Amino acid sequence: MLDLSDIYLYLEEHLSHKRYTHSKNVADLAEALARHYGCDERKARLAGLIHDCSKEEKYDDLVYYARESGFPVDQESYKIPEVLHGPASVYVSKAVFGINDEEILSAVRYHVTGRESMTLMEKIIFIADYIEPSRKFEGIEEIRALAYNDLDSALLYALDLTILYVIEKKGLLHHDTVSARNFLIGNVTQI
Fold this sequence. Notes:
By secondary structure, the chain is an all-alpha fold. The protein has one domain: Orthogonal Bundle (Hypothetical protein af1432). Helix content is 65%, strand content 0%. Pfam families: HD.
């Protein structure tokens, strides 16, 4: 695996200043949430740092990287290109950074869509990305408060807001997002 300082350098060179700052914020928040929930802080920090490492790549590269990481780029994915940077970032994490830890890679893979039966690390990265300090939207303060009290309720609220946003934009919902929400509904008291 590349030294952490080399990963920071790569990200600084390959991401816009705004995206690089976002990635550092997510890493900080992921580490804090991991500490709070007794999860591996080092892994959470790294997953948070690299979660968007391919976000600003060209569309054709995202498709290639996602396929190379084993993600089935099907018709649904073509119609929802925003989901491609999760699995594409898995490819970059492996090929460029030399990261092979499945817990980290899975958190990177599902930070956009979520999925049914998410692991603690996946939940932490999803929420850290969703509520990092530069984000501002209606409902975020409630999710920030929930994040340190009931991670599953925070995740459910975030998924609900995401789904409502996509519906308002007349966009397509990814099946993993729907599965994540449906799974949580059966396991979390509604907010």
